[in-house]
Amino acid sequence: MKNAQLQFSKIKKKYLNFLKKQEIKGEPFYEKINQLKNFYIPICNSLYKAHILKKKTLIVGLSGGQGAGKTTIAKIIKIILKTHYGLNIINFSIDDFYKTRDERRKMSLKTHKLFLTRGVPGTHDTDLLKNCFKSLKRKKFRPFYLPKFNKSYDDRYKQNLI
């Protein structure tokens, strides 16, 4: 029982520290502890059970509108699964798979000028995304390229292996 309380205490501390960094003045998160106990921990317990049952890498996708909190939820899930279960977790977004600015520029000249704008259907590098999923599902892990998109530069960061 004490071990469970200690684990919850560790999770709670990391969770609250993360939320504090995410809060915007005048827009605090409400019901933080209730959400942790009644939403995040049960979801993480289910994910862990699925992971153990399948005995392989589990890929979880979140969908929702822009600004709905998908990234925040994914990061909280990562905190709990890492802290409580010791799992290695990576998070990435479909936004990280936009084609490079140069690729979109070429598409805009060849096909339609809207391809210069990211987010338009066809501006994601679906082959790169598919290859990342294949790399994640390999039985024997090897480092691979996981892109990260910088919206302020409207292009990907330089390549990094994970």
- What is the structural class? mainly alpha
Q: Helix proportion of residues, in percent?
A: 40-55%
N/C terminus separation:
37 Å
Proportion of residues in extended strands: under 5%
Low-confidence stretches: none
User: Largest beta sheet: what is the strand line-up?
Assistant: 1-2
Arithmetic mean pLDDT: 91
Largest β-sheet summary? 2 strands, antiparallel
Question: What is the count of β-strands?
Answer: 2
Alpha carbon gyration radius: 19 Å
Domain count: the total is: 2
Number of helices: 5
Outline, from the CA principal axes?
globular
N-to-C series of helices and strands:
HHHHHEE
How would you describe the overall organization of this protein?
By secondary structure, the protein is mostly helical. It folds into 2 domains: 2-85; 94-156, no CATH class. 51% of the residues lie in helices and 2% in strands. The protein has 5 helices and 2 strands. The protein has helices at 2-22, 32-54, 70-85, 101-110, 126-137, and strands spanning 149-150, 155-156. A two-stranded antiparallel sheet has the order 1-2. The radius of gyration is 19 Å and the shape is globular. The two termini are 37 Å apart. 8% of the residues are buried.
